Amino acid sequence: MLxxxxxxxxxxxxxxxxxxxxxxxxxxxxxxxxxxxxDLPIVREEIQIESSDNLSVGGxxxxxxxxxxxxxxxxxx
Length: 77
Description:
Layout: E1 11-14, E2 18-26, E3 29-35, H1 45-58, H2 65-68
């Protein structure tokens, strides 16, 4: 795992198409923005684990799964 220190407004580039930007740091919470191709799924780990758990228990995703997924905001580079 690569561990980096960044300040608000600084970016991390992943390949040629993904940019991660530190948007805000406050009270122990870091808000990041991800600019990536629309066909690349970006999901918080806990949502993916929860979704996997729901699939293994009930055989299908919960009704409100879409409400809990993260939003991808495409900002200009």
